[in-house]
Amino acid sequence: MVEERRVSDSRVETVHMVRPNHLNAAGRLFGGILMQWLDEVAGLVAKRHTHSNVITASVDNLRFIKGAYQKDVVVIIGKVTYVGNTSMEVRVDTYVESVDGMRRPINRAYFTMVALDENDKPRKAPRLILETEEERAEWEAAKKRREMRIKRKEEGF
User: Fold this and answer.
1) Given pLDDT bands bounded at 50, 70 and 90, which one contains residue 64?
2) Residue 2 has pLDDT above 90, yes or no
3) Which domains does the chain have, with CATH numbers?
4) Which of 31, 46, 78, 103 has its CA 20 to 30 A from that of 64?
């Protein structure tokens, strides 16, 4: 029987308070700190989906839309958007949340994660059950991003 999981089965949401040690010289959230948080969320999403260890293979479209500042509340949401054979794409969105609960986007990234077996070798990832039109649209967009990744790899980029 083929393993299958829903997008909602592996969704992860984390919340961070931006502290002084998270700031760069310009007084904004240091991109490297945010990258660490994003990679952790992507890894947790992929682990939940595969029920196994995973590694980060690549990060695409890391877009810094706006900055975050000291005392900002940063919310990071990750979900699986596409599953190949052993790899999967995880979309990670980042928001700054105001005291009234409003969220404004500050970052989006797409991670390629690879499922690993007990010997740290790639293993088959469970299929993804698409339940909504949004999930199906994200799957189609992910297929295009995958094609672009393959093309860049072939061309040495």
Assistant:
1) confident
2) no
3) 4-154 (3.10.129.10)
4) 46
Return the DSSP state at 138: H
Residue-wise burial string across 128-145, b where 16 or more C-beta atoms lie within 10 A, e elsewhere: bebeeeebeebbeebeeb
Say how far residue 143 (Cα) sits from the centre of its chain: 16
Would you state the structure tokens that stand for residue 27, as one six-digit string?
């007084």
Cβ contacts of 84 within 8 Å, gap of 6 or more: 125, 146
Enumerate the β-bridge partners of residue 56: 113
- Rounded distance between C-alpha atoms, residue 93 and residue 88, angstroms: 16
